[in-house]
Amino acid sequence: xxxxxxxxxxxxxVAQGPGSPDEDPSDGFTRGGWFVPHLxxxxxxxxxxxxxxxxxxxxxxxxxxxxxxxxxxxxxHPNARIMNSLPKYVASNSLTEAEWHPTTILSGDIPAxxxxxxxxxxxxxxxxxxxxxxxxxLAAGLIDALxxxxxxxxxxxxxRLFPDGGAPAGLRLVSQQTTPGxxxxxxxxxxxxxxxxxxxxxx
Length: 203
Known about the structure:
Blueprint: E1 2-9, H1 41-51, E2 54-60, H2 61-70, H3 80-85, E3 88-91, E4 103-106, H4 110-118, E5 124-128, H5 131-139, E6 145-150, E7 170-178, E8 184-192
Parallel strand pairs: 1-5, 1-6, 2-3, 2-5, 3-4
Antiparallel strand pairs: 6-8, 7-8
């Protein structure tokens, strides 16, 4: 399977708490819900198309617990059947049971276990949110592609997908589009390490 990250970001790179003020207040984050004002029908159709490519979902613990709390109750959402029925994997060394079925808990050497999942037949293994997990798997060279949905807002605090000191990564832009609500959608493929150069008169 191809490992694909789907992440909602602010212009300053924050991935924390896009869906509501109380979605993820950890570390004193008080500015959640920044993504919601920019949602529109076009993005909803796009997100449904992406989900239709998934054969399994992969989460970090925090995102998994939020999704496991909310998605089983969202029976009228157009994506609920797929979200609730797809095989799910959660990377956690603290969870001992997972009630959002079907879910498998991954613990210990997470990159090795994710690499094994990628060797299984299928289309996409999708990471939704879970920025810290995405960071670690990008550093391990396991991410094949990223779908970054950037909202036109700066929140000034919160966890970032690409923090200072993170692993370098080369990427190639595959497609880009905008939605009526102002979201900028970038699809990128991993190319290994970045290339560097020197700008000059002959560049």
